[in-house]
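Sample 1 of the test manifest.
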Amino acid sequence: MKRTGAQMVWESLVYEGVDTVFGISGGAVIHLYHALPDYPIHHVLMRHEQGAAHAADGYARATGKVGVCVATSGPGATNLVTGLATAYMDSSPVVALTGQVATPFIGTDAFQEVDITGITIPITKHNYLVTDIEELPTVIKEAFHIARAGRPGPVLIDIAKDVQAAEIDYVYPEEVNLPGFEGCAYDSPSLVEQAAQMLNQAEKPLIIAGHGVVLAGAEDDLAALVEKANVPVVNTLLGLGSIPETHPLCLGMAGMHGEAATNLALSHADVILNLGSRFDDRLTGPVDQFARQAKIIHVDLDPAEVGKNIAPDLAVIGDLKDVLPALVPQVEPAEHTEWLATIHEWQKDSTQRDVLMRETDELLPQYVVRQIWHATKGETVMVSDVGQNQMWEAQYFLHHLRRGLLSSGGLGTMGFALPAGIGAQMGMPGQQVWVTAGDGGFQMNIQELATVVQEKIPLKIAVLNNGYLGMVRQWQQLFFEGRYSGTPLLGPDFAKVAEAYGIPALTVKEKGEVVAAVEQAANADGPFLIDFRIEQEENVYPMVVPGSPISVMIRRPEEEEE
Amino acid sequence: MKHTLVAWMEDKPGVLNRVSSLFRRRNYNIESLSVGHSETPGISRMTIVVSGDDRVVDQVVRQLQKLINVTKVADVTSKAAVIRELALIKVKAANGGRSEIIELTNIFRARIVDVGAATVTVEITGPEDRVNSLIGLLEPFGIEEMTRTGRVAMVRGNDGSGSCDLNGA
């Protein structure tokens, strides 16, 4: 059957199960857009290509399916860069389609020409420049395979304009032939046996559950392991939700802003089983001082992650969906009574210092986050932005939903939450989705409020507005002599902005108004925005002293002065 | 310590860029890199000399293996291997220096490949230390130009690591 390149693209996407794409049109993708209405694919028109990349990423994170974004050549393509880097750092399966100038013009610095494949080599799992229509179906097939297989990641396909317009007989390949791309099969039963022995002999074992557990869909296997051997679990930011945070053995997020009890558990454990975390520096602090008493077992799908940051005592390369079911039967039931009692004491101390235990009329962001958790009973996908708001969300929302927290963990991309929330909501139409963002990050992609309205997306948005680029301000307060250089931030009246776009909104200045406002948003049929004018100089605690091991923390005082 | 890696990769546009981009981005210390065709059509073979401790080199290997176009990587450092480099050295040959240069060339089993009015061009193939020695001896004459290929390596005999056969090694 004869097809143009543009038709092939959409037909191939339909074969790959794509029903939603996020993009912006332009000269070099005009053929793609011309063909699009003939296919059962819903196009979400974003207001900036960065938003399109984040939306595709959010869609992928929420659903586990490949998210697709589309942009034109030149500036359209370069605008995707931050979003692709975000997806790459957090192993999110995204396929980006970009238009390229027509083949005869490539290399001539033609209008809106940019070498996007060259630019995105370090921030994609792989990328392609298609200048021959014969290659197009194979390239698309491979791109989807690479994005999904093994450790997921973004793949970019740059398609020359004349290729989109050309016409040939179209056959979509059934299989890929990628000799250099091996799936990483688990093939080491003896290593799993050793891991089980180490766990069985441990007196103070601890599990780190990272993003890999979520990506593998191994939550049930994790729960089976935890419950059988009575091993406490800490999470990385992106591992939150891999075990319900209300589970008695879940200690929540560890690292830079982990609870003291959680970081102390890491520092005192004698055996640490790391499941699908890459020992990121936000988790470990200085690697030579990390968990020095522990023997470390690292299970990861990506061989290059093992030994990259921390040299483990035992490495198991494999998919957690294979490794955990092999490990659980070999792990002996245990009590670890003394270890758990010690952790419990640390937790009691943490609870006493908890800001929510304080009697105050201040409008604290932690309180806002906890009220969102109460109002939604935790049954909402949370999409957080970056900075203080991200840490408060991570600390005070007790995640239990699978794929229930979407956040830019690795790259730390401000402006992520709103477009990623759009993507998540498009992928999960029946699910309530909340975006939490600071006033700084929210202004970085605020234009996507128009997308929310055009697509009638019932997104709930909580802006934690403190008038600062708050995390940097906190660092300046604590480590840079209190010089607030470049951090005080003027914002608009967010409620008025929302209303101008056609989104109902509230401004909340008093603690007493929080519960009703959150309920109103949660129960609204459509989108809703709340601008919370929170305490301006509230800090995120505990905080690991930069450069120190994670057991050295600035704690919140038990009674903070007014 | 210096390690010699051999990598096989698809002969496609941009593959060299992917490899060099990886080295630059991850701050690996690459001493030399040499690439050309292998025995298999469509597969290029690259010899990479990288310095670093075992952990760094292990990372280089694993990161290279992640590149989609790279089909295989082998660390041949500890293996018995033929390791060679080719250099072309254009030396000033005035005032009777020429005969001395020819003598040195013969001792090193190198070759004179070009003779000009005031220069001689020497071609030497051998292990790097032999190439270095000859260069050291030619320096007093004045080296006008030089180009070196960097190391290429091939494991001796047949231990399975020497071809791009994916089932080997």
